[in-house]
Amino acid sequence: MEQSLVRHLERPKEQQEPLSLIIGDIDYFKGFNDRWGHQAGDVVLKAVSRFLTKSYSPIGYYL
């Protein structure tokens, strides 16, 4: 993931484009993951990712 992030950060720098980076936290996610398992946690992460993708402009890249 770190290599992918570095790659995505280089493009705007090279093309002198603006860049925004959002880092978030899902409250109580570790407890959910521990109780219900990693498969259920993956479902939650995918649902959050879909929600965020639909909520923001289609311009740019999402990780």
Commentary on this structure:
With 63 residues, this protein is an all-alpha fold. It has a domain at 23-63. The protein has helices at residues 2-14, 29-36, 38-55. Helix 2 crosses helix 3. The longest helix has 18 residues, at 38-55. It is elongated. The chain starts with a helix and ends in an 8-residue tail after the last helix. 0% of the residues are buried. Residues 17-63 form the GGDEF domain. It holds the Pfam family GGDEF.
Shape: elongated
Total strands: the figure is 0
Largest sheet: none
Helical proportion? 55-70%
Total helical segments: 3
Radius of gyration: 15 Å
How far apart the termini lie comes to 9 Å
Unreliable sequence segments: none
State the secondary-structure class.
mainly alpha
Order of helices and strands: HHH
Average pLDDT rating:
86
Approximately how much beta-strand content do the residues carry? under 5%
Domain GGDEF: 17-63
Protein name: Putative diguanylate cyclase
GO cellular component, one term: plasma membrane
Organism: Limnospira maxima CS-328
Secondary structure layout:
Elements: H1 2-14, H2 29-36, H3 38-55
Helix pairs in contact: 2-3
Care to give the gist of this entry?
The protein is mostly helical. Helices cover 62% and strands 0% of the residues.
